[in-house]
# Entry
Amino acid sequence: MKIFRENLTSKILQQKSSSIINKYKKEIDILEIGCGDGNITNFAINKRKIDHNFYLSDISNYAVSAAKKKIKYKKCKFKSGKWLDPWKDKKFDIIISDVSSINDFIANKSPWYKGVICNSGTDGLRNIEKIISNIENNLKKKWKIYIAYDFFIK
# Structure
């Protein structure tokens, strides 16, 4: 099985989310959905000024295992599952998502997606819509969400 590793999109999310996280002067809860190998959270952990709580999930058990191996930070929790499902009873200050958001036609043609779970639909929005449609249940009152979205139409 293949998992997503650091790319340009994740590098942008690393920088942006890390700069936002470091503005918080007290401990917060941060979720990364579609964590892949954990590179976005790992970057944020290494740049953090405060010991925040990090939560990571991915639809792929293999990806979650890879993230666990990469990240050796005591305040991290990992779960496998789709979208926000693993975190039904948890609220977060920040949610970061780098879930697959390229249309299925392109994903099926791209070597980058070979062996990676995509299932984003013909417009690439299926996963993003699932996250956004239920996100209010998982966000605290003052919240932020960061989504990387690659938009390609067949």
About this structure: The first strand starts at residue 29 and ends at 33. The domain at 28-147 is CATH 3.40.50.150 (Rossmann fold).
